[in-house]
Design goal:
626 residues; alpha/beta; 5 domains; 6-stranded mixed beta sheet
Length: 626
């Protein structure tokens, strides 16, 4: 898989930890301008592969060759900084070529005689380093980091990740290598990063579970499966289509081999010990055929038909809930009655109170005032951002069996702990591994199994998509779509939200919470239409003001009888149009319309404004002579 005009060429790369082989004899390349998304199951070594590529970890064998003078920016999954640094100082850390250049320049200025100043000035101009700090502050602001003098030690893990992302982007490297860049970003930040990367046109190799992000940013997908890298020249949607074609062809080849294998096996058992040349040839062909026949087939669809425990009609009723932290309001007289089988998504910027809200619902935090009444049959299953602390010396199967040995599915059917783990991509040999051998993503997947093993009828999932691979997300989506209980999901994964929720609670901050009747994509479409409407309204008002100023009296002539009648009709028409416009604006801002109604009325508004402008101008012309 050699790349044309290669930036990076990898040949026969192997990495193992003790007896665990993560990947073996990997060969692939990355060309100038190429934007690659790397997809693989958790535990196959995606993060380790990126770390090996940039020299953070060693390799067992193979070669990694970068083009000469290539600059590489690397965002690791869990970055760290020395505690003594401030946010802005972290952007001048070692490893950033432009930051090093700025520091050398400042050191030179402070040194008597300024040795090497001319050369440094030339390099500063060549690397566009003069506005480095301004660029750093601009990108940090886009990522909602605005206190540039705050000590890095006071930041949360998510904020540190955002500082590290800014640090990588500021330097404008030729090649970006990013490990889960959308983790800990809210939806606005993710969309900003999409736009930034599409405008920057840098070469890119990244690991991410955000499928919309993959779709809109990448032009190539690499899938790592059983130590083979498959390349798909297209975005994520194209990859899904072509991957299924590859799987179907693979399964068909194995099926054909199995049919022939049975015939050849019978021949092998019947043939005499003395063999001629043709028999030896056929025997060798048999062993080659056996290798193909015994390959693993891919399941076309992994399903988990699990019924939740019974849930009554009363779920929860919130009445005038209030919650604040100092001047920061989370809930402000919030009231809501949750329905049976409802599937709600919660979106909003970081810090608007989404996690606090679900902790209040679960009884993990108290409200300042108001009442919350939970139904007697409700059995919560809570998947938190913080995860679960496992005994690292415990076996995977035992971690789930501690919760329950089986799930009762009703009708005499049961699901064992081992069967559940198998559905979530823990094969029998993996189930008897120790927890400490699992990757971070595999531990999150195990945590998910422990939540589901409790057989809840009300699932509350707080950022379930972080650190889960795409295959696991697809299984979880299918599970949630058929889940016979209630669901609340807090997530920044737009694709996931579109698949599993019926409506959204939108947290706008300071206790402003709105209910939207649709999924995230529909909400985004409505939000864009609303912003367009407000912009058009502002432009129309400015145009109307300008046109009014330009009207001048042509003469002192009087109106004809026909013009008088037209003026009277115009006054009625304008009054009716203004009333319709006012009603339309109120409806658009009410948040009570369905998506179809929102779309229809958003289309009507520009037409209405044009009619109003046209009739108002004609009325102004005629009224001058009335």
């Amino acid at each position: 898989m050699a790349a044309v005009n290669p930036y990076l060429q990898v040949e026969n790369l192997t990495k193992s930890f003790g007896d665990q082989v993560l990947f073996e004899n990997l060969t692939f390349g990355l060309a100038e301008g190429q934007r690659v998304g790397l997809i693989a199951k958790n535990g196959t070594g995606k993060s380790t592969l990126l770390s090996v590529l940039v020299g953070k970890e060693g390799k067992n064998s193979g070669s990694i060759i970068y083009r000469n003078d290539l600059t590489v920016g690397y965002l690791e999954q869990t970055p760290t900084y020395p505690e003594g640094l401030t946010v802005i100082e972290a952007c001048f850390q070692n490893g950033n070529a432009v930051a090093e250049l700025v520091r050398e320049y400042e050191k030179c200025i402070e040194t008597p005689g300024n040795p090497g100043l001319d050369a440094l000035i030339s390099q500063m101009e060549q690397h566009d380093a003069w506005d480095y700090e301004r660029r750093a502050k601009a990108i940090l602001s886009q990522l909602k980091i605005r206190d540039f003098d705050q000590p890095i030690s006071q930041l949360s893990g998510g904020q540190v990740k955002r500082v590290a992302l800014a640090n990588v982007l500021i330097n404008r490297p030729d090649l970006l290598i990013l490990d889960e860049p959308t983790n800990h970003l809210d939806l606005d930040m993710i969309e900003w990063l999409e736009d930034y990367l599409n405008r920057a046109k840098q070469s890119l190799l990244m690991v991410t579970h955000d499928r919309y992000f993959l779709d809109r940013v990448c032009d190539t997908i690499y899938e790592l499966d059983d130590n083979v890298i498959y390349s798909y020249k297209g975005n994520y949607s194209y990859y899904l289509e072509k991957r299924q074609e590859r799987i179907d062809a693979h399964n068909a080849e194995i099926a054909r081999a199995n049919n022939l294998y049975r015939t050849e096996l019978d021949w092998m058992r019947r043939m005499p010990c003395a063999r001629g040349h043709k028999a030896r040839y056929r025997e060798e062909a048999f062993y080659e055929l056996e290798k193909v026949a015994k390959q693993r087939t891919y399941d076309k669809k992994v399903e988990l038909n699990q019924k939740s425990s019974y849930i009554g009609n009363k779920i929860f009723e919130a009445d005038n809930l209030c919650k604040s932290f100092g001047d920061k309001k989370i809930l402000d007289n919030f009231s809501y009655i949750f329905s049976r089988y409802e599937k709600m998504g919660i979106v909003g910027e970081n810090g608007t109170g989404k996690s606090t809200f679900i902790k209040i619902l679960l009884g993990l935090q108290t409200v300042d005032s108001g009442t919350l009444d939970i139904g007697e049959t409700v059995k919560f299953g809570y998947y938190s951002q913080e995860g679960m602390k496992f005994d690292e010396q415990m076996k995977v199967i035992d971690a789930v069996r501690e919760i329950a040995e089986v799930i009762d599915l009703g009708n005499g059917k049961k699901l064992t702990a081992s069967q559940l783990l198998n559905h979530f991509l823990f094969p029998p040999e993996k189930q008897h591994n120790y927890v400490y051998k699992l990757s971070g993503g595999e531990k999150r997947r195990l945590y998910l199994c422990t939540v589901l093993m409790q057989n809840p009828n009300f699932l509350v999932l707080d950022e379930p998509t972080n650190d889960l691979d795409i295959v696991t997300l697809q299984i979880l989506e299918e599970y949630l779509k058929s889940f016979g209980g209630c669901l609340i999901v807090v997530s920044h994964d737009r694709y996931f939200m579109d698949k599993v929720v019926d409506h959204l609670l939108v947290f706008n901050g300071q206790g402003d919470i709105r209910d939207f009747p649709g999924n995230y994509s529909q909400y985004r479409e409505w939000k864009d239409a609303k912003e367009h409407f407000e912009n058009e309204k502002q432009k129309a008002e400015q145009q109307k003001e300008t046109k009014t100023q330009k009207v001048r009296v042509e003469s002192k002539r009087k109106l004809s009888f026909k013009e008088k009648k037209e003026l009277e009709q115009l006054e009625k028409d304008i009054e009716a149009l203004e009333a319709e416009k006012k009603m339309l604006e109120e409806m658009l801002c009410s948040g009570t319309l369905s998506v179809d109604e929102l779309t229809e009325k958003s289309k009507r508004l520009p037409v209405l404004n044009d009619e109003l402008d046209e009739k108002s101008m004609r009325w102004l012309e005629l009224s001058e002579f009335a």
